[in-house]
Design a protein that fits this description.
heterodimer; A: mainly alpha; ABC transporter involved in vitamin B12 uptake, BtuC; globular; B: alpha/beta; Rossmann fold; 3 domains; six-stranded mixed sheet; 18 helices; 22 strands; disordered N terminus
Chain lengths: ~300, ~525
């Protein structure tokens, strides 16, 4: 087998490689948003959480030399932002979308402010799991170098699905998100359940940020997220609030993101910026196709985004 | 969990529930004043009273939602402190609310398991289904466990609410107007099955009701509240409907008799031609409906909830786009725009008025002005005259006897009956009203409010207004309408003049046979 001349086969391979490398942030943020929205709240601020996670993971990894500690700190930083959102968005007559936009600005501003000293130095990266040893081709081998965080995310998706179906807490989250009145009649504290969901969701989003700065692209800069946190919100709608479908949707978005670089790798440089914009175009198309004034979305939590009484 | 399963099998006798000299004040307002009540084990007890008489406050004190200002709640002769529904459950008390409390997106089984206070953190669905199947086999109603709540009809949802309490092992059931969303047949079925459980000594029931028919047919004892005070108590077998109505209302009040004037010069006002509309999920809800409503007649549409009535009314009110078909008003195509409504004088009393006909956070006066605020005298040269809006509202509040602290109160703070009166005032105060579309106008209202609304609708009809009345209450339709249709699965399957309508056939058509 000719190991060097992959030719046009390089494009799908590069897309697959890009998908495996680049979908982890989508996956973590969308799972976090899925959990948050199941409880009836929207957290647009996960874009800010993602950046905060990326910055803190990189900084801690650089300062302590332990990337895993960085991952944990990224999650904790996410929880901190989640607490603020969870409390603010549940005040009377407060709109969670407005709070979310404020949290994007706050989270990214804080990350840029604290992250200034860490743009230059290089921090220890997360270990790589190589699944391509069976192949002779170095391209295949390098394509199948997978982040442990991606594998963790792949495991969390079905676990979350199971959590929603077969655990008391999962049922409580769904009840609160679908019918707060019914939940209140059962004596459940809406505030606590939503707070816990938002904080846990923000923890996941923070870890998504760690995947950005400690695996791919593997550095810290202010443009590192390029709106992935916001796209993940659209992705949850596309996935119909189903964690396993969030996984598939994340792979789709990750793949769309990889189209531009993949074409470039085989020498197609024209329309580079257009191809790089494909995740954004995909987001727009999904929004147009799934939203209709004539019908409600199946699977949408009944009380999603409704104001508190 | 083992104890739960065993308890279901043995069904211990219900405890005795007694309320002694209970008083509840909200600020300076006394909602309940020295009320006492006793539910003996194995009895079916009715709690009667008008809206605002304090029935809901009383049961909420029993269930631990409110803390009584003074007085005692006794379970099995011991005074108990009940601070939450969970405490109440501990003493075997369970409540079925007027509004459904099941989570629409979850299945019957998920709702039942979730409702249990002791459900395990990790749910083994196979074991739970086995246990639920065993429970269903011994329960008075059967519902498919795997159906999502959103797909259940109103009657089944109500049964589920009761089942939930039986599943929780509650031995004293408190029911808050359990039949207000049911057809008469469904109501009889649900209450009949509960009656059997009570007769067998498995249950006690305390039921809030407005319906004398049900009180007479199913209950043993009745306690009547009026304006927060005990107005009477007795055994149903010793009482007449008149006597109970007298206790409830104070003075003797009879339902205003239905007097219909024959309107000459009948001309068609509303005409539907093959009207089709879709549900929220895109499936057809109304299938090719055609009908004519003429001046001076009430055309009724009967049907079990969820057969397309809501969508039909929403299309007529302009809340939902039609799929196909034509609507003509006074012979002209009608698109339900505000301009057309004003020109043809079309008015609507939709169901759930707080949601469909009011802006809850806006004041009573503003809500009453929604139709006319942009026309003189309420608007002058493009500016609102708040003074005139207020004056008009104060006048309407008087005429339609809306009970509100002031016309500046947000309409969402009023009780259901008064919200309906506010809408009624707005929709029926116009002198040259032409077409009235009413949907379940009396849902959840008490005797005197119902009587008032009925007389208003009849008065409109006698003035020559064309009325389309969509209702789930067959008695209401038989009382008011001149012609009656039955809607089933979105189709108008039956039409008859009300005078010659066969009730048995109506029931069969409603059930879809």
């Amino acid at each position: 087998m000719a190991s060097e001349a992959l030719g046009w086969w390089g494009i799908p391979l590069a897309i697959i490689a890009g998908t495996l490398r680049g979908s982890a942030p989508f996956l973590f943020v969308s799972l976090g948003e899925c959990l948050t929205e199941k409880s009836g709240k929207i957290n647009l601020g996960l874009e800010g959480t993602l950046l905060m996670g990326a910055m803190s993971a990189y900084a801690v990894s650089y300062l302590t030399g332990s990337p895993w500690l960085g991952v944990i700190v990224a999650g904790v930083a996410g929880m901190f932002l989640g607490c603020i959102h969870g409390w603010l968005s549940q005040q009377p007559r407060v709109n969670d979308v407005a709070v979310g936009i404020a949290m994007i600005i706050f989270g990214s501003g804080l990350a840029f402010f604290l992250g200034k000293p860490f743009i230059q130095p290089s921090a220890p990266q997360l270990p790589v799991i190589s699944l391509g040893a069976w192949s002779q081709m170095p391209q295949v081998q390098s394509a199948l170098q997978i982040s442990p965080l991606f594998l963790a995310g792949v495991a969390i998706a079905p676990l979350m699905q199971w959590f929603f179906r077969s655990s008391r807490w999962g049922l409580l989250v769904r009840a609160v998100g679908d019918s707060p009145d019914a939940a209140r009649a059962m004596g459940i504290s809406i505030f606590k359940v939503r707070m816990a969901s938002i904080v846990a969701g923000s923890f996941l989003a923070g870890i998504g940020g760690a995947s950005l700065s400690l695996f791919y692209p593997g550095s810290w800069s202010e443009r590192i997220s390029s709106g992935q946190g916001l796209m993940a919100v659209a992705l949850v709608i596309f996935a119909r609030w189903n964690p396993v479908q969030c996984l598939y949707a994340s792979l789709l978005f990750g793949g769309a993101q990889a189209i531009g670089p993949a074409l470039q790798s085989v020498g197609i440089d024209s329309y580079y910026y257009l191809f790089n914009a494909s995740p954004y175009i995909l987001t727009l198309i999904i929004m147009i196709v799934t939203c209709s004034p004539k019908r409600t979305l199946t699977g949408a939590p009944g009380a999603l985004g409704q104001a508190q009484e | 969990m083992e104890t739960t399963a065993v308890a279901v099998q043995t069904k211990p006798a219900p405890p005795e529930l007694e309320v002694v000299n209970l008083t509840k004040r909200f600020g300076t307002f006394t909602a309940l004043d020295q009320v006492s009540l006793k539910v003996t084990p194995g009895s079916f007890h009715a709690l009667l009273g008008e809206n605002g008489a304090g029935k809901s406050t009383l049961v909420k004190c029993i269930m631990g939602f409110y803390k009584p200002t003074s007085g005692d709640v006794l379970v099995d002769k011991h005074s108990r402190t009940i601070d939450s529904p969970k405490d109440a459950h501990h003493f075997g008390l369970g409540m079925v609310y007027q509004h459904f409390t099941s989570v629409p997106a979850m299945t019957v089984a998920e709702n039942l398991v979730l409702s249990r206070y002791d459900s395990p953190q990790w749910i083994n669905w196979k074991a739970e289904y086995d246990r639920l199947d065993a429970f269903m086999a011994t329960s008075p109603f059967q519902i498919d466990l795997r159906t999502p709540i959103a797909q259940l009809a109103a009657g089944q949802k109500q049964k589920l609410e009761i089942l939930k309490q039986l599943y929780l092992n509650s031995r004293v059931l408190i029911l808050d107007e359990p039949t207000s969303v049911l057809t008469p047949d469904e109501a009889d079925e649900v209450l009949g099955l509960l009656r059997e459980e009570v007769t067998a000594g498995h249950l006690s029931v305390l039921m809030i009701s407005h319906k004398f028919r049900e009180v007479m047919a199913f209950t043993d004892e009745v306690t009547v509240l009026r304006k927060g005070q005990l107005a009477g108590h007795g055994y149903v077998r010793d009482l007449t409907v008149d006597a109970m109505a007298h206790m409830m209302l104070g003075e003797k009040k009879e339902a205003t008799p239905v007097e219909k004037v024959t309107v000459t010069d009948m001309r068609p006002v509303l005409e539907l031609r093959n009207l089709c509309a879709d549900r929220d999920n895109g499936l057809p809800a109304v299938r090719s409906a055609s009908l004519v409503v003429s001046t001076g007649e009430i055309v009724g549409i009967a049907g079990v909830s969820g057969n397309g009535q809501r969508e039909l009314v929403e299309v007529l009110a302009g809340q939902r786009p039609r799929h196909s078909g034509e609507i003509l008003v006074n012979g002209e195509p009608y698109q339900s725009t505000r301009r057309e409504m004003a020109r043809h004088q079309v008015y609507t009393l939709p169901e759930e008025p707080l949601r469909n006909a009011c802006v809850p956070h806006m004041s009573v006066a503003e809500n009453m002005a929604l139709r006319t605020f942009d026309k003189p005298p309420q608007a002058k040269r493009g500016l609102l005259s708040l003074l005139n809006i207020r004056r008009m509202a104060e006048e309407l509040v008087k005429v339609f006897s809306v009970k509100t602290p002031s016309v500046d109160t947000p309409v969402g703070n009023l009780s259901g009956g008064n919200v309906q009166r506010t809408v009624l005032a707005r929709e029926l105060s116009s002198t040259d009203i032409n077409l009235l579309i009413a949907a379940n106008p009396c849902f959840g209202l008490d005797f005197s409010a119902v009587d008032y609304i009925h007389s208003q609708i009849l008065a409109a009809r006698n003035r020559g207004v064309a009325v389309l009345l969509v209702s789930e209450d067959l008695d209401e339709l038989l009382k008011l309408s001149d012609r009656i249709f039955v809607i089933s699965d979105g189709e108008l399957v039956y039409e008859s003049p009300t005078a010659s309508a066969d009730i048995k056939t109506l029931g069969q058509k409603m059930a879809g046979h």
